[in-house]
Amino acid sequence: MKKILLILSLFFSAVTLHSQVCKDFKEGIFQNDTEYRQFIMERKDNFQLEKSTEYGIIYLNKSNLLIGKWEGKWDDISVLLEFEAANKGSISYSNPLKKIAFVYKIQKDSVFLKYPKSIKSYKFSVKDDELFLNSKESDQESAEIIELITYVKKK
Hints:
Blueprint: H1 2-24, E1 28-33, E2 38-44, E3 47-52, E4 56-60, H2 62-66, E5 68-74, E6 77-83, E7 88-94, E8 97-107, E9 110-114, E10 119-127, E11 130-135, H3 145-148, E12 151-153
Antiparallel strand pairs: 1-2, 2-3, 3-4, 5-6, 5-12, 6-7, 7-8, 8-9, 9-10, 10-11, 11-12
């Protein structure tokens, strides 16, 4: 019986110790240098960005990268993009006032927005708290409003 209690107490103390160590690495910038490459990892909330001399920049949890509200303005039109965790979202325009719901899917550096009557695909990039969208259809002569805007993430 004493051996079982000892084993259980060691197990639970190890679990507690491990969870305390993990909390220290949830947010921040961490660097690891090996003889082959340098590796930098940046963590914030549920997002992780990895940079290495070998592979460049790699986004992990790419869908988490867009989750949230993004604001932008072009001429007299304000636009609010909202990406929810369940792959649902909406785009709201201030002039004319309208809101359109969509379902989205992310593949590599592209986001596919499925509206009620159409599907649009955009290449996206995020730098700091700015979002840029570009249409994947190269034969378009004019850009959509959604592409002309630099979006800033709402805090």
